[in-house]
Design a protein that fits this description.
single chain, mainly alpha, Arc Repressor Mutant, subunit A, globular, about 55% helix, three-stranded antiparallel beta sheet
Length: about 90
Amino acid sequence: MKQEKITLTAKAEGLLWFEMLRSLSGIKSRKEIIPFPLVFEKVCSKFSITKAKAWNCLFFLAEFGLIKVTPCHGIKLNYDLRGRTDNDN
């Protein structure tokens, strides 16, 4: 029973990261790099989290190579939801 709860939690957490990535890909930006104010506006309001927790989430996604955090500017999505990486073109 305990193992089942862990599996369900892992699935739910995976869906949460997917939902966060989908929210980030929905941000309208004229540039390739999405500015931090737009990122925090979308993520903090949608998931009701603080800016510090949003930073943790962004660095988590960056560790897996899904986004690139550009200091003092914003983030760049390395992966779109159709399964193509930025390098595939």
